[in-house]
Amino acid sequence: MMAMAGTREMKAHVKKTRTRNQLDDMARPLSPASLEGLEPRPMDWASSTCGVYLLCNVDGAGVAVFKPQDEEKIPEHARGLVEGENLYRERAAYLISSEMGGFGVPATIIAHISHRNFGSKVGSLQRFVPLSTDMRDLGPAGIPIDQVHKVGCLDILLFNTDRHEGNVLLHHRSRHRRELIPIDHGLCLPELVSREGGANRALLREIYFVWQLWPQVGAAVLRTMARCGATLHGVADFVNASLGDVMQEAWARAAAPVPPP
């Protein structure tokens, strides 16, 4: 059986998980009770280069997705990112999504997981999204404009360097309502400017989002998305006040003095 520690992180600052109109089911914080006794099953997830485990309950149903820190791998083409920091970026993406409201990133925490198959590991733990499929075998036809715009706004805000069909889920909330759920944010928030190299111009030139060629992006920005722009000052304050705790280890390494040659 699996044991979980680090519930203090689970209760950490997520002061706005409620959107302007309703609480997003996927964004609800994970409770310690819901994670007890789960069994990890390795996932053959073609869209990820990292170790990924689906934590299942006694009925075999997925509850959460666990990505251990020691199984992280940064793709060779990735720029401005360092292995071992994905879990903090996954958590940061959820906190920003929750603070803004309405972007739908599933609840994500940093957790210590113990299991007989792999001992004790720390990593990101994200709520599993049922009744969904990724966009690899689907086209953008029929996807609501607001859903494409919300993923686009989130990716721009996070400067997500890894948005492709495999990490956008199509979730059937009801018979007549389909939503996009953005996941897999370990390669967001890259280092755009460094003391050593200055601006990361190559990254700025090469950034690509899968939704760029979807017809929905040509539509006028909806009022709900435009209102997000009005809250960017609030998000900046939130980042300064809150994400330092989440990204502390990553930022400490980045801020360390550069040794002389």
Describe this structure in words.
- The protein is α+β, with helices and mostly antiparallel strands and 261 residues long.
- The chain has one domain (7-243).
- The protein is 27% helix and 21% strand.
- It has seven helices and eleven strands.
- It has helices at 7-10, 86-100, 145-158, 201-206, 223-230, 232-246, 248-255, and strands at residues 3-5, 39-42, 53-56, 62-68, 108-115, 119-127, 132-134, 168-174, 177-182, 193-194, 198-199.
- Strands 1-5-6-4-3-2 form a six-stranded antiparallel β-sheet. It has a three-stranded antiparallel β-sheet with strand order 7-8-9. Strands 10-11 form a two-stranded antiparallel ribbon.
- Strand 5 and strand 6 (119-127) form a beta hairpin.
- It is globular, with a radius of gyration of 18 Å.
- The chain starts with a strand and ends in a 6-residue tail after the last helix.
- Residues 6-23 have low confidence and may be disordered.
- This is PI3K/PI4K catalytic domain-containing protein.
- Belongs to the PI3/PI4-kinase family. Type II PI4K subfamily.
- Residues 88-191 form the PI3K/PI4K catalytic domain.
